[in-house]
Specification:
The complex is a heterodimer. Chain A is an all-beta fold. Helices cover about 0% and strands about 50% of the residues of chain A. In chain A, a hairpin with a 6-residue loop joins β4 and β5 (about 45-50). The termini of chain B are far apart. The chains are: A mainly beta, B mainly beta.
Chain lengths: ~110, ~120
Amino acid sequence: RKEVEQDPGPFNVPEGATVAFNCTYSNSASQSFFWYRQDCRKEPKLLMSVYSSGNEDGRFTAQLNRASQYISLLIRDSKLSDSATYLCAVTLWEAGTALIFGKGTTLSVSS
Amino acid sequence: GAVVSQHPSWVICKSGTSVKIECRSLDFQATTMFWYRQFPKQSLMLMATSNEGSKATYEQGVEKDKFLINHASLTLSTLTVTSAHPEDSSFYICSSGLAGGRAKNIQYFGAGTRLSVL
């Protein structure tokens, strides 16, 4: 079983749609959780950190369920510019360890 | 915010040549630098962890003699792909971070190096 698994893509949605991505992680020792956005042939850029209490940044909402080892990302009112690959990532310890990435889910928003 | 500068951004080379990729932390001291590789439509996979002043730690299946890592200063880590072959063609990317506290293990990525071996 892979350490971080994500929904298979691609997700093709119209502008204005709400889309949800899911991610599960296998190691219960995982400490930090993130969603990254990666555009084609570019480095990943941090979208948001994910906390048990949930966090929201504009149209983006992330949730963490430690008991189920599950992370989610909700995008509301999708924009054309949201088209990208979304990567779920975890780290095992609080600091100084590498990110373990999921394979990513591709989102394509069309007009 | 913290910045990691990586170059070159794109390399095309002949099979058998060696390629060096540099990553510099521009406004912070990077005691640790992570090196990842990403094949098309795949995830970023950790290759090795570069530690300033000591030997790098390689992930299982990554040949340390093929992927030479040097981290001689707190601001520079290099990855050299020795005797590159077409199967080494990939997107190589480094990252480092401001660990702990408010930063909560946020990693800052270089822009990546796309290597094409002919």
